[in-house]
Amino acid sequence: xxxxxxxAFRKLNLxxxxxxxxxxxxxxxxxxxxxxxxxxxxxxxxxYTKPREVWIENLDSIEEKKLGLFELHPMVYAALxxxxxxxxxxxxxxxxxxxxxxxxKTRAEVRGGGRKPWPQxxxxxxxxxxxxxxxxxxxxxxxxxxxxxxxxxxxxxxxxIQGLTSTLSAKLAQDDLHVVNNLELPSDExxxxxxxxxxxNWGPSVLIVDxxxxxxxxxxxxxxxxxxxxxxxxxxxxxxxxxxxxxxxxTMSAAEKxxxxxLHNLNSITRDQSAEFKLNxx
Length: 282
Prior knowledge:
This protein is an alpha/beta fold and 282 residues long. It is built from 8 helices and 11 strands. The longest helix is centred in the middle third of the chain and has 17 residues, at 157-173.
């Protein structure tokens, strides 16, 4: 039976060209022999795991083009996601920017109560010095909240680093992390960027990260009127912002800088950073 099938294929003169197929789309993309893979030499190469490869995408056209493969370090983008660590980072970020403005008045601030309500002795009543004591209705509040109370605390250094690696790994595993070659757009129209996001199924909200805080003009103008699309430099990347947006878009230079900084902290002595936080350190 096998020999019959082989002879049938030979009579048809079929030539099979190897292709790489994208699981998201049904159209074939770059052949294997012309595919470019960006390989990097890390200062701290992975020991037991292989690098993760992602497609390098473009922004100069609405249609998605695969420009090659880009390697990501597994210690940064393929770590074991810790939900508890991510939760601790989110609570920390929400707490350190929260200031409670709840305020209650003390017995010295409420109205009235200037004189002693009745004599100390002789009436058989409990002794009181003011009707605005915390014991009285309408009096002051003892140990109540005072405005301007901050709930700031510092999360341990290794927990912050592990929060970044866990969130980046979760985004990559869920196919919500994309790498682009640059942020150059052919137009500054918001509709162009909105159509691009809709065409590529990037979700309702997108966070774009670049290695510099000076982005190209077209993308800054296009995202100005799109409240669900934000641009952030590498030094501002945080767990809460990545979870707040559905899709994370990194430039190649931003992905490399994130790897460099996180790998440096993972493989160096961080005794000073991990020391207990004190207010006099600021």
